[in-house]
Design a protein that fits this description.
153 residues, mainly alpha, 3 helices, flat, single chain, 0% strand
Length: 153
């Protein structure tokens, strides 16, 4: 096949570079060489600084470094408590407000209003309870400032 007039090495039909007989002189193809005409060129990536992981940021009384296993366990327990207590409070509020609509035969308009109000109140109460428990936990974990005296002493 060497006498057939074909050149060695495969080239795209739209390649502006001339084909040569030596496969070793052809540089490797990049994505820009084989990209169809309608596709945009590849953009260069920006090098942004790495975002800090949550365990590397200051909090829970630490100024640097990672949290200990006991601190992570304490936070897990507190998050679980916040979610369960918020779910219980939301269920009680929903039952108190929307319960009559579910138990008794009321007009359709009153049923819809009570169900909507109960659902809305339960959702707001859930979010408020979770946020208040976690904020209180975070504030309790911050140590007092050294060198200052306690005003109660």
């Amino acid at each position: 096949m060497s006498g057939s007039g074909r050149t060695s090495g495969w080239r795209p039909a739209t390649d502006p570079r001339p084909a040569t007989d030596s496969a070793l002189s052809n540089p490797p193809l990049s994505l820009d060489d084989v990209r169809p005409a309608g596709f945009p060129a590849r953009r260069a990536r920006l090098s942004l600084p790495r975002r800090a992981l949550p365990c590397e940021t200051a909090g829970m009384g630490q100024t640097r470094g990672r949290r200990t296993q006991s601190e992570r366990d304490e936070m897990t327990v507190e998050i679980g408590y916040a979610l369960f207590s918020a779910a219980f409070a939301a269920a009680v509020a929903f039952g108190a407000l929307a319960g009559p609509a579910l138990l008794f035969d009321l007009p359709v308009t009153i049923e819809k209003v009570q169900l909507a109000a109960g659902t809305s109140l339960a959702a707001v109460l859930f979010i408020f309870r979770v946020a208040s428990v976690l904020v209180r936990f975070r504030q309790a974990a911050q140590p007092s400032q050294p060198g200052r005296t306690n005003p109660d002493s």
